[in-house]
Specification:
Elements: H1 2-7, H2 19-36, H3 41-62, H4 65-71, H5 81-88, H6 105-128, H7 133-136, H8 141-167
C-alpha cells in the first residue's frame, strides 16, 4: 500500500479528470508556500531539488514493473510521481525577481504569477510533448515514465526564466 501511495503521490493519481495535473500540485504548492513565507532562494532550491530527487527515485523504482502489475498497463495515468518530479524543475533557480519584497500585496500576486506560470508551462509541455519528450517515453521501465516529464520540466524552466525576467 505504501508503494502505491508513493507512485500515485498519495493517491492523487486516482483523481479525475487530469491526474497529471493533480500530481503536479504538491510540488507547486510547496514552492508557493515557501515563497509566501519569504523563504530564501537557497531553501526554495533545496526543497525543489529534494522533490525532484525524491519523486524521480520513486518513479524510476516503482513506475515500471510495479506500476504495470498494479494497474495492468504500461505508463498508467495513476502514476503521477513523474509529474511531481518534473514540476520541480521550472521552480528551481528562480530569478531574483521572483522573490518579491515582503509585506506588500504586490508581492503576493507576484509569487502567485511566478508559480502559476511554472505550473501551467509544465503542464502544457507535459501534455503537448514537444521533441524529444515523446521519444523519451519509449525508454523502458520507470525511466521511460519519468524522462518525458523531466524534459517537459526543462522546457517549462526556460519559459519561467524568460517570463519572470520580462515581467519585472
Amino acid at each position: 500500500m505504501l508503494r502505491q501511495a508513493l507512485v500515485t503521490v498519495f493517491f492523487l493519481g486516482h483523481l479525475r479528470p487530469a491526474p497529471g495535473t493533480w500530481g503536479s500540485l504538491p510540488t507547486a504548492a510547496v514552492a508557493w508556500m515557501l515563497l509566501l513565507f519569504h523563504a530564501p532562494p537557497l531553501v526554495v532550491n533545496l526543497a525543489m531539488a529534494g522533490s525532484l530527487v525524491l519523486w524521480s527515485g520513486v518513479c524510476v523504482i516503482l513506475g515500471g514493473a510495479f506500476a504495470e502489475k498494479v494497474f495492468g498497463r504500461r505508463d498508467p495515468s495513476e502514476v503521477v510521481a513523474d509529474e511531481a518530479a518534473g514540476q520541480a524543475i521550472p521552480l528551481l533557480f528562480l530569478p531574483a525577481q521572483a522573490f518579491a519584497v515582503q509585506g506588500t500585496q504586490h508581492a503576493f500576486w507576484r509569487l502567485c504569477l511566478v508559480v502559476g506560470v511554472a505550473f501551467l508551462a509544465f503542464r502544457l509541455f507535459d501534455i503537448i510533448k514537444p521533441w524529444p519528450c515523446r521519444r523519451l517515453e519509449r525508454l523502458s521501465g520507470g525511466a521511460g515514465v519519468l524522462a518525458d516529464d523531466l524534459a517537459a520540466g526543462l522546457y517549462a524552466a526556460a519559459v519561467v526564466q524568460v517570463a519572470v525576467r520580462w515581467m519585472w
